[in-house]
Specification:
The two termini are about 40 Å apart. About 40% of the residues are buried. The protein folds into four domains: about 1-30 and about 325-490 and about 500-545 and about 835-1010, Multidrug efflux transporter AcrB transmembrane fold; about 35-135, Multidrug efflux transporter AcrB pore domain (Alpha-Beta Plaits, 2-Layer Sandwich); about 135-180 and about 265-320 and about 570-610, Multidrug efflux transporter AcrB pore domain like (Alpha-Beta Plaits, 2-Layer Sandwich); about 180-260, Multidrug efflux transporter AcrB TolC docking domain, DN and DC subdomains (2-Layer Sandwich). Helix 27 packs antiparallel against helix 28 (about 895-925) and helix 27 packs antiparallel against helix 30 (about 970-1010). Strand 8 and strand 9 form a beta hairpin. It is built from 30 helices and 31 strands. The strands form eight sheets. Strands 1, 2, 3, 4, 21, 22, 29, 30 and 31 form a nine-stranded antiparallel β-sheet that branches. Strands 14-13-18-19-17-20 form a six-stranded antiparallel β-sheet, with helices on one face. A four-stranded antiparallel β-sheet has the order 6-15-5-16, covered by helices on one side. By secondary structure, it is an alpha+beta fold. It comes from Indibacter alkaliphilus (strain CCUG 57479 / KCTC 22604 / LW1). Keywords: Membrane, Transmembrane, Transmembrane helix. GO terms for molecular function: xenobiotic transmembrane transporter activity.
Length: about 1000
């Protein structure tokens, strides 16, 4: 096949050029995003039920919804949490469930359940969680002094939002911090009572004055007209002109008995940028959009906004393209330095300028053609797939060097140029194919990990497979064709300048050490065998973590004040914190109270706030955030504070809402939360001391109103009238809405802002005889501590504690006994069990990978024993990587693990080629030498033949990665553990493997002989 293709260089060249042209066209259409568009198998159902208690929301809303959703296909788990005025149900599905269909099914079931839910409840909101839901950027909108906040809210909602949504690549624009304008009606109680009127007369007058006839028409001869009531109101002035009539027939203008005016609706949440109140716009991208093209458009639009709307200040925070740009920058750096150092190293080793040029042409061509595979597998260009390409670049250089070196060696042996190209490729073809398959055998099985990890590895596996597959195509066809083209004018028989003076010295040193080691081969082999477990044992001293510690200059502080405060008090506390840190941060933004985001899948309450800080450097962050924590604890001892690095897309994707180890129990008798007083006693007898209360056990102070039914019956007070009266005097009571072309302005009855005891004393209700009585005659109140949340799962209401023990399972039997004594059903859940499941999966996948590796090598060498040489070579590389990680204080994390795969791929390649060469040379020398002499000659010569490609591959890879060690920034922080793994494995591991492979080969051959 190689001979056939090389005999047609023009056809091959045109084919490669055509592939590259198509790849460039395809590359321009590939979506560019931060992460693959992964369907997180979760759906959130959110409920807003004003003035409802957690118990009422659980019993009347969440429980019926849970029962209705129980039959969903693929449903794995379901948890709900009811708080004051809000409730959430989190549905977790089996990974692989088609989430777009699950989302439709959930909505259909919610629609069917609507009739069984309270009539005054707005439709529950269904949110589907997706990696594209993570905003790419947050745009801050802050009104300047003297400008009305509600006008800026309308500008943001009706203009800015729509202009951003028109940008190509934007899927959704979400807003938080809006304030709406409303019309308030404040009754003049004294005048109303003097005229014999009540608030009901005012409410009815406004309702009747804002009525609209629905589709009534009249005929006038041959014409038909639709009726419109002329009394419909549009402004406070219209409302004040409405007539109000008492039961005795007294009629006055509404302006006589009430004050009507425009006001800003009382917010349930605030957004602050710095210490200024404002709005925030989060921009979400389409799955197929290119983030690196979308972000400049957004910045350009913001510059236009600054010109068009000078009354508003704009700024940008939390730009998520930083990670993507870091990944692209790393790939560019790898290509640039890989090409430069490959050229330099090849020149130093070979003294030949043509060979580096050939490799310089093969690297970008392989990379470009790889994007054609991306297109067919529907893979986007993202941080994960880019890391796969970077992972394959080392192998790409390796294959190129090996093929070129072998062709040069064949020419030196006297073969003509064409024959040298054919034989040089054919000789290493099977070995290179095996080395690529073994690399994929180590990596591809990770795709079968369950959950999001497996989905992420799919993109990486496709990227690795594509670049390695293309690299073989380039190495077997394109490289020899280029070699033949560059060396076509060199006369046949002319001596080939293969080795530089430097390499001649290195080769001499290798031979001297080889002779010394093989003089005491048994001792040397024993030392290498001892090094394997000793090196692997270094892993016990390495810190293990998920992602490497990236230098982040931003942080997020989440605080729950754990006190019954309003949102205004919450805002004032946040402002005091910002004032305490004034000048010590670059940017800050805060979301306080209830969030207005459509896609917000977290929990928000009036007592919670989230503060984001951007600092100049990490040192400043490490100084100020603990200071802020201490400040909160000193002034607000009840507050619960959580400080963490600002989440990027990775953190948001992998973040788990699940506690590490949770003990849940259900009352098997009552099916409801256990009374607070009983539960406190039982918790005092709980077998484990180190625990924290779960949401279902957290308490908050509340005021409980109790109606005096006997007094109400005595004085003829209707219970419904009393409840309606309480709704009106506590809060803002909705009367009706003014609707104009999609704009809705609510009209609300405004209550007096007074102490609730005073309101009960000074508010009156009529009995059946028309006599007025103060409300405090029928209502008594008490201050009580009640559960803050009601939690439930598929089996019903539960309460729980979070264990904080190092060995949480040690007390399981004691906890079960504790539950049995109290008629409680006990269950254990948490991330602990998920982690154990993942570890068992990884061990199974690792076993499969090793078996695949063995089968491929056994087929390559046609031996059941020789693959063990390659397998036992790998721990030496791992030991070298662990040594450098330990010396540099680097943790064992995802990136260093990828570095191990890169390094092992190169080491496997070297070992396979060396064993393949020894096997061929043994056959060559077997005719004229004894088996022992043939083996010795073959091992010695194979080491000499393979020394140059091994050294050049290792040196070029190490030098290409070395600049990352001395770089700074997010990209360098992310890649540095990978670099240390590769450098450690290729320096220590490759050096030992150069001598270990022939020693192990000798030991196995000798054992087989014996």
């Amino acid at each position: 096949m190689v001979r056939f293709l090389l005999a047609r260089p023009i056809a091959v060249l045109m084919t490669f050029l055509a592939l590259m042209v198509f790849s460039v066209i395809v590359f321009r259409t590939l979506p560019i995003s931060l992460l693959p568009p992964i369907d997180v198998p979760q759906i959130l159902v959110k409920v807003n039920y004003p003035n409802a208690s957690p118990e009422a929301i659980e019993q009347n809303v969440l429980s019926p919804i849970r029962e209705g959703l129980m039959t969903l296909g693929g449903l794995e788990d379901m948890d709900s949490k009811a708080g004051s005025e809000v409730g959430t149900i989190r549905l977790t599905f089996d990974y692989g469930t088609r989430m777009e269909l699950a989302y439709i099914e959930v909505n259909e079931k919610i629609d069917r359940l609507t009739n069984s839910l309270p009539s005054d409840l707005s439709r529950p909101q269904v949110i589907r969680i997706n990696t594209n839901d993570i905003p790419v950027v947050r745009v801050q909108v802050v009104p300047k002094d003297g400008f009305d906040f509600t006008e800026v809210s309308l500008l943001t909602e009706n203009v800015l939002k729509k202009r951003l949504e028109q940008l190509e690549g934007v899927s959704l624009v979400d807003i938080n911090g809006k304030k709406e304008r409303m019309i308030t009606v404040s009754p003049k109680i004294a005048i109303l009572r003097g005229l014999g009127m009540t608030e009901e007369n005012v409410i009815n007058a406004i309702k009747y004055g804002n009525e609209e006839l629905p589709g009534i028409s009249v005929e006038d001869g041959q014409f038909r007209y639709y009726l419109r009531l002329a009394t419909r109101v549009d402004s406070p002035e219209d409302i004040m002109k409405l007539p109000v009539t008492s039961s005795e027939g007294v009629t006055v203008d509404l302006s006589t008995v009430a004050t009507v005016q425009y006001e800003t609706s009382e917010p349930l949440g605030y957004h602050l940028f710095g210490e200024n109140e404002g709005l925030v716009i989060t921009v979400h991208k389409q799955a197929a959009a290119k983030m690196n093209e979308l972000l400049p458009k957004i910045y350009e639009a913001i510059e236009i906004f600054r010109t068009d709307y000078p009354q508003v200040a704009f700024d940008v925070t939390q730009d998520q393209s930083v990670l993507l740009n870091a990944g692209i920058s790393n790939l560019q750096t790898s290509l640039l330095f890989g090409g430069l150092f490959a050229f330099g190293v090849l020149f130093v080793f070979m003294g030949n300028y043509k060979t580096p040029i050939i490799i310089g042409l093969s690297l970008p061509s392989s990379l470009i053609i790889s994007f054609l595979v991306f297109y067919f597998f529907d893979i986007s260009i993202n941080v994960i797939s880019l890391s796969g390409l970077a992972l394959g670049l080392g192998m790409l250089i390796d294959n190129s060097i090996i093929v070129l070196d072998n062709i040069t060696r064949k020419r030196k042996e006297g073969l003509p140029l064409f024959e040298a190209c054919v034989e040089g490729v054919n000789e290493v073809m099977s070995a290179l194919i095996s080395s690529v398959l073994t690399t994929l055998a180590v990596f591809v099985p990770l795709v079968f990990l369950s959950g999001i990890s497996g989905a992420l590895f799919f993109d990486q596996a496709v990227a690795v497979a594509s670049i390695l597959g293309v690299s073989l195509l380039v190495a077997f066809i394109f490289l020899p064709m280029l070699y033949r083209f560059f060396f076509r004018k060199q006369p046949e028989g002319q001596e080939i300048q293969e080795d530089s003076k430097l390499f001649v010295r290195i080769l001499a040193g290798y031979k001297r050490l080889y002779i010394k080691i093989f003089a005491k081969r048994k001792l040397s082999f024993a030392l290498f065998v001892i090094l394997i477990p000793a090196g692997l044992a270094l892993s016990l001293f390495l810190e293990t973590r998920g992602l490497p510690p990236i230098e982040k200059t931003d942080a997020v502080l989440t605080v729950n004040w754990n006190e019954p405060i309003g949102v205004a008090q919450n805002r004032d506390r946040v402002l005091s914190l910002l004032e305490a840190l004034r000048g010590d941060f670059v940017k800050a933004e805060s979301d306080i109270g209830v969030r207005q985001f459509l896609l917000f899948d977290g929990e928000s309450s009036l007592q919670e706030a989230t503060l984001y800080f951007l600092f100049e450097n990490q040192n400043q962050k490490e100084q100020q955030m603990p200071h802020l924590d201490n400040l909160i604890q000193e002034n607000f001892p009840n507050a619960v504070v959580q400080i963490e690095d600002a989440p990027n897309a990775f953190d948001q994707l992998f973040a788990s809402n699940m506690p590490y180890y949770e003990v849940r129990w259900k009352d098997l008798g009552s099916k409801k939360p256990i009374d607070e007083s009983i539960m406190d006693v039982w918790l005092g007898e709980f077998p484990v001391r180190q625990f924290s209360r779960g949401p279902g056990l957290q308490k908050e102070a509340s005021v409980v109103f109790r109606l005096n039914a006997a007094e109400m019956a005595t004085y003829g007070v209707n219970p419904n009238d009393l409840q309606e009266k309480v709704k009106r005097i506590f809060g803002v009571y909705g009367i009706t809405d003014i609707k104009r072309f999609g704009e809705i302005t609510p009209i609300k009855l405004k209550a007096e802002k007074r102490d609730f005891e005073d309101l009960l004393r000074n508010s009156y209700i009529k009995g059946t005889e028309g006599q007025e009585y103060a409300l405090n005659n029928f209502i008594r109140f008490e201050y009580e501590n009640h559960y803050k949340f009601v939690t439930a799962d598929k089996g019903g209401v539960f309460q729980s504690v979070y264990l904080e023990e190092n060995e949480p399972t040690a007390h399981n039997q004691e906890i079960l006994n504790w539950g049995n004594e109290r008629n409680l059903g006990i269950s254990f859940v948490g991330q602990y069990f998920k982690d154990r499941e993942t570890i068992s999966e990884l061990l199974g996948i690792l076993l499969v990978a090793v078996l695949l590796l063995y089968f491929i090598l056994a087929a390559q060498f046609e031996s059941f024993v020789q693959p063990l040489v390659v397998i036992f070579t790998l721990p030496l590389g791992i030991a070298g990587a662990f040594t450098v990680l330990l010396l540099t204080g680097t943790s064992l994390n995802v990136m260093s693990a990828i570095g191990l795969v890169v390094m092992l791929g190169i080491m496997v390649n070297d070992a396979i080629l060396k064993i393949d060469t020894i096997n061929r040379l043994r056959i060559k020398y077997a005719a004229n030498n004894s088996p022992g002499e043939a083996l010795e000659k073959a091992m010695y010569e194979a080491g000499e033949i393979r020394l140059k490609p091994i050294l050049m591959t290792s040196v070029t890879t190490i030098l290409a990665l070395l600049p990352v060690v001395f770089s700074s920034g997010l990209g360098a922080d992310l890649q540095r553990p990978l670099v240390f793994s590769v450098i450690g494995g290729l320096t220590i591991g490759t050096f030992t493997a150069m001598y270990f492979v022939p020693l192990a080969y000798w030991a196995l051959a000798r054992g087989k002989k014996g």
